[in-house]
Design brief:
The structure is a single chain. This protein is of the alpha+beta class and 148 residues long. The chain contains five helices and four strands. It has helices at residues 6-18, 21-43, 46-49, 65-79, 87-101; strands spanning 107-114, 120-128, 131-134, 141-145. α2 (21-43) crosses α4 (65-79), α2 (21-43) crosses α5 (87-101) and α4 (65-79) packs antiparallel against α5 (87-101).
């Protein structure tokens, strides 16, 4: 569990208050979906919670990059309030739900990288075309690509 100081919480709260209404709504939507996905992952088997085909949609056509950028920022801001370990998967699934509500189709990717002591570390990220809504990071081996 990550530790946050009182000064960090105050800074985050001031940042939230300084956002315009649209960004505040996106932040709370991102926070809602992240906690909802985390809660579902905690109590339901993955196969019952989501159909993997549900996350295998390739983006089509032109997408407004402003919406994608605002969604990426909202997911990152809401992630500061996450206390669980599998944050990248929760962020990817929450971002997927936010984009789906806006009619934007995204693709989920799963992969591995080498962590500390050369232990494999799993990672999930979300893309719309070439735009990474949830960052790929330093993934070395891609195991699942919804484009396949």
């Amino acid at each position: 569990m990550k530790q946050t100081s009182l000064a960090q919480v105050q800074k985050q709260f001031r940042t939230l208050l300084s956002l315009d209404t649209r960004d505040k709504v996106l932040f709370f939507e991102a926070l809602y979906f992240q906690y909802k996905v985390w809660f579902l992952m905690l109590f339901l088997p993955f196969r019952k919670m989501f159909s993997i085909e549900d996350y295998c949609n390739v983006s089509e056509g032109l997408t407004n990059t402003v919406i994608l950028e605002r969604t990426r920022i909202a997911i990152s801001r809401a992630d500061t309030l996450a206390f669980w370990k599998n944050r990248c998967l929760v962020k990817s699934l929450a971002a997927y739900r936010m984009l789906k509500r806006r009619g934007i189709r995204a693709s989920l990717h799963l992969g591995l990288s080498t962590g500390q002591g050369s232990m494999p570390v799993a990672h999930a990220w979300l893309q719309v075309g070439h735009f990474e809504v949830v960052s790929r990071g330093e993934v070395e081996v891609e195991l699942f690509d919804s484009h396949l």
